[in-house]
Amino acid sequence: KMTQQMRDLQLAQARKPPGPSSPNAAKRLYRNLSGKFRVNYTSFDEGSLAGRGEKEKLRKSYLFQSNAALFEAVELQDLDRVQELLRQYSPEELDLNTPNSEGLLPLDIAIMTNNAPIAKALLQAGAKESPHFVSLESRSLHLSTLVREAEQRVNELTAQVVNEAPNADCSEKEKQLRAWEWRYRLYKRMKAGFEHARVPDAPANVHLSVASSSSVLVTFWEPLSVNSAVVTKYKVEWSCSPSFSPPLGEAVIDKLKNLHFTIRGLVSGTAYYVQVSAYNMKGWGPPQASVPPFAIPSNWREYDGRAPRRRGQAEALDHLLGQVKTVHQHCVCHEPCKNQPQSRKHSVSKSLKHLFHPGSKFLKTLKRGLYLTAIFYKDDNILVTHEDQIPVVEIDDTYSCLLMQDFLWFTKVSCMWDEILWLRQCVTVSQSSCSCILQTRFKMLLAISQMQGLLGIQDLGQVFFEPVKDKQGNILIVTLKEVKTNQTFESVRWVPICKLQTSRKSVSSPDEPTALDTLLISIQDKLAYHQRSSHALSSGLYLGYLKLCSAVDQIRVLVPERLPNILCHVKIRSNPNISREEWEWLQKMASVEEPVPAEAEAETSQNYLFQELQVAIKELMALVNIPLQEAKDFRLYSQEVLDFGGQVSFLLLLPPSDDVCTAPGQNNPYTPRSGFLMLPLQIFELGEEG
Prior knowledge:
Elements: H1 2-15, H2 23-31, H3 33-36, H4 49-75, H5 79-88, H6 91-94, H7 106-112, H8 116-124, H9 136-163, H10 168-196, E1 204-212, E2 215-221, E3 233-239, E4 249-253, E5 260-263, E6 272-280, E7 283-284, E8 288-295, H11 313-328, H12 342-356, E9 369-378, E10 381-385, E11 392-396, H13 404-413, H14 420-430, H15 436-455, E12 462-463, E13 468-469, E14 474-482, E15 492-496, H16 497-505, H17 515-521, H18 523-532, E16 540-545, E17 548-550, E18 555-560, E19 568-573, H19 580-590, H20 605-623, E20 635-636, E21 642-644, E22 648-654, E23 661-662, E24 676-680, H21 681-689
Parallel strand pairs: 9-14, 16-22, 17-23
Antiparallel strand pairs: 1-2, 2-5, 3-4, 3-6, 6-7, 6-8, 9-10, 9-11, 10-15, 12-14, 13-14, 16-19, 17-18, 18-24, 20-22, 21-22
Helix pairs in contact: 1-9, 2-4, 4-5, 4-7, 5-8, 7-8, 9-10, 12-15, 14-15
């Protein structure tokens, strides 16, 4: 049957154009394919059925040539070209897993020539081995047939070249002969690679950890030995018995981008043993047992049956807000203004008239007072008014100093940009008390409504953690928002930030810069802060450092500049789950004066956690500039593990009780290096929630 296939192949090859005469000629051929077969599809009449058919035919031809180019690149061991084709086309467009006329796939050629870099690149892209090779014998027979048929073809062409007189036809035969000689050598190299290969060694560093109450996570590395053929897949097996008899299940991993696997659907409290083996073209290698040898699915909450802290909180808050809105639906704030006291009616009507009056505009200059500015940016451009000014509206022209409590109240309002009208109506009722605080907050809501109306957008973004002030008594509350889509705004346009800074510099006073000048000078720092504060941590367990300092009107928390929405931290491991056994060990360590670590030789999850914590604490102390000997009195917060969405969790490292929060006038014994911020606690909480 194989001989008949090769005869059919010969006939097909005879009908094909002659192959490349040498490796160099082949390289030139496939490197020029993309230009040679490029089609200008726009030249076809889209309304013509014949045109559409021709277009589809040419597209298929183009993709076929791309597939041929990939085979040529693999055969010539051109890694750069292989990577370029994999980037340029999808696996489907390349027909990555469709065998060629010889029954081979690109991955087959790569692994049988033992070209590990190309094989790994193909595997990362989703390449498979040929389905024709169902056994070692079938692969060996197939390779022997390819070598024999190629040798026969070389002998035939050699005889024809020797016996025929020199002519154009003979020259063409010589090209075919050189091409087949090269292919003969390729097949012999593939056959030798297969014959000398051996099964792979066991995977290295097989580590088992508890992922949840019903799952365990196994991670591993490829075998350390480089003398065997390329590994193309792995097998994970698990059982309740250390002898794996009977086995409970297995999974084959052929997507090798990340060498890990989560075994799900397990029974909490039951011990599971895991082993991993590797596969190459010679078969499966020996299994490697995990370290530790078993894991028991569990979670730290099972230690005392504690429910998640935030369970149902968001729903409860939504329900509470709905109740408040229902109560206010028929209250006096929704009655006509005639029900308001006359003095307040005049003031509120005047404010509303100013807000909706056609002449309502952004401010060009600041006088002494409190203002709101909205910074919208996209790449290196910023949104400005038609007068090339940052959008600014007035909050209160009689306000000389911003109280921290008013500012923090404003930051909370920023979580409800869509509810400003409702909030404004509710605050209106309370103004009968003539409270200065309520007056200011009502004006804040009016300014927000005015900014929203002038820009034509509700969401003004995130409030910067501190207002911008100048010596003239101006105070700017700054909101920041990145625009990633082609969003339409009213009364504004985009300009480059550098252009705005240059034009502002020409009219500002260097001796006494206004709040707007200061804002523009520091605009890049504020945009960088905004972008960094929206970054998320990768999945894992982290060690965080809690350090506070108090002032008369606020508490501030130490955070890194590079990630200001998270405490100072280092990563302990990629698995965010703390098992019941690990948490029980942590509780035990927290209750004794001098913790005694687990034995160094013990292969337990507790001992691994101890080693990971040792490394993490040293790294964290170096990060915040605290000598390690001074950290001997520090302690782990043992009340709970802080959980953020199930993918990120934190253990907290605390200074001694008296040093957790530094009081006003008290020396801070632990001063971190540059690269940190002392953020108002309420601002930090809002960022952490986001």
